[in-house]
Write a structure and sequence with these properties.
about 325 residues; CBS-domain; 2 domains; four-stranded mixed β-sheet; elongated
């Protein structure tokens, strides 16, 4: 045994970290040319690689696709048996191979040359077949594999993955890809919940509990109960939200409540939120104000009630 498990882990991580530093310091104009090729692609980015490089290629394709760059992984062996039809003019190919001599890549490389499809090659040998055939060659620094004997792809795959991430983020930032854009490609899970907009979760139309300022409190209580949110919005003749009535307002006006109108009981100028705000912002506002509902109104113009967001809607979506 060459050391404790933790010693081995630290050695592996330090070797790979040092290689990533080499990779960062060695970037040059070829990286810029690669980004420009990808930006100008009229079709998709076709990412390919064999073995461990193939696993990395799948992840890079997924990262590109989720950050605004249409991309697809094509298995090089399957490409030789019909899947080359997925690679068309207007696409850009990003092909990965540590040695640059992976035989299974020959057909996909030849296909790009035959049909004038731009090829970005990633390999550790500048004189390799892959990089000599490429329009843009991204050369990985010569760094030792973390396994110690040089036979297990470890450091090389880490560098390739990091380079793919660098390409994806460069493209994303150039396109000014926003969290809202990101949410379009990640509607599920915790991430999708965090990036949900208020309009995605709010209740609207007939579900809104609204009354006129002159509505007697008896009728207002019926509206509150019927809609089931524990709140009512008070809307004037101009359609604007004048106030809200909550459980707290009811308790404060218990004496002679049924003799009053909605305007007598409501809290004026309530907190509201816009439909395009992130639902996470709405949760923060409700927590800060110690309330359970927010009426949704336009960012500009009169505060017409467009919807209602309840804290339970946010909790069901995975927020809170």
């Amino acid at each position: 045994m060459t050391g404790s498990y933790q010693d081995i882990a630290r050695r592996v991580i330090r070797i790979e970290a040092a290689a990533l530093t080499q990779l960062a310091e060695g970037l040059n104009g070829d990286f810029d040319r690669a980004v420009e090729l990808l930006l100008n692609a009229r079709g998709r980015v076709i990412v390919s690689g064999m073995g461990k490089s193939g696993h990395i290629a799948r992840k890079i394709a997924a990262t590109l696709a989720s950050t605004g760059t249409p991309a697809q992984f094509v298995h090089p062996a399957e490409a030789s048996h019909g899947d080359l039809g997925m690679v068309a003019r207007g696409d850009v190919a990003l092909v990965l191979s540590n040695s640059g001599e992976t035989p299974e890549l020959a057909d996909i490389v030849a296909h790009t040359r035959r049909f004038g499809i731009p090829l970005i090659g990633v390999a550790a040998r500048a004189d390799s077949t892959l990089l000599r055939q490429s329009d843009v060659a991204l050369v990985l620094p010569r760094a030792e594999e973390a396994c110690g004997n040089g036979i297990v792809p470890t450091t090389s795959t880490t560098m390739t993955l990091a380079l793919g991430d660098a390409l994806a983020i460069a493209l994303m930032e150039h396109r000014r890809f926003t969290p809202e854009n990101f949410r379009d490609f990640h509607p599920g899970g915790k991430l999708g919940a965090r990036l949900s907009k208020v309009r995605d979760l709010m209740h609207a139309g007939e579900a809104l509990p609204v009354v006129h300022p002159d509505t007697p409190m008896g009728d207002t209580l019926i509206e509150i109960s019927r809609k089931g949110f524990g709140v009512a919005g008070v809307v004037g003749d101009d359609g604007a939200l004048a106030g809200v009535i909550t459980d707290g307002d009811l308790r404060r006006h218990m004496a002679g409540l049924l003799e009053l109108s909605a305007a007598d009981v409501m809290t004026p100028d309530p907190a509201t939120i816009g439909p395009d705000a992130l639902a996470e912002e709405a949760v923060a506002l409700m927590n800060r104000r110690k309330i359970t509902c927010l009426f949704v109104t336009p960012e500009d113009g009169p505060p017409r009630p467009l919807g209602l967001l309840h804290i339970h809607d946010c909790l069901r979506a995975g927020l809170g």
